[in-house]
Amino acid sequence: MRNIGFIALVSLFASCNDIDFRVTNNTDTVIDSVILSNGFDEAAVYGIRPNKSTEGHLNFSGAVTTDGNYRVKVYTLDSLRKYSYGYYTNGSPTTSSAEIIVHPDTIKVREEGNGFY
Q: Reduced to 3 states, what is the DSSP secondary structure of residue 91?
């Protein structure tokens, strides 16, 4: 019985080391793909139509114990846009989720905390 409690606790702690994200396309064109990276792992979402959203999940399980930020790459048929934001420390995110909003002229990110704010 003690093993089940320990496994549940470890699973809960491990799941907090990931980040969920939503990408919202506020442009008039289809976004081919969006890649979110933390420098050692990346996650991608594909085919986001205008004025639609989709969700993804960035894994931190293979993280090294360093500090860093997130990098977003937005690909359309004829362009690549890059944006850096946020912060993670000791290989763990300081937020639990992010909304990446792609506008015609900019990329905005809203982060939600996991008890640090």
A: coil
Listed by start position, the domains of the chain span 2-113
Q: Is the distance from CB of 69 to CB of 86 less than 8 angstroms?
A: yes
Write out pLDDT tens, residues 44-73.
Answer: 999 999 999 999 999 887 657 888 899 999
Residue 88, both tokens:
């993670």
Confidence band (pLDDT; 50, 70, 90) for 16? low
Q: pLDDT tens for residues 30-39? A: 999 999 999 8
Q: How many residues does the chain have?
A: 117
Nearest to 69 by CA among 43, 45, 37, 101: 37
Beta-sheet strand order (sheet of 80-89):
42-48, 31-37, 68-75, 80-89, 92-93
In the CATH hierarchy, which fold is given to the domain comprising 2-113?
Answer: Immunoglobulin-like (2.60.40)
- Looking at the chain, which runs of residues are DSSP E strands? 19-25, 31-37, 42-48, 53-58, 68-75, 80-89, 92-93, 95-102, 107-113
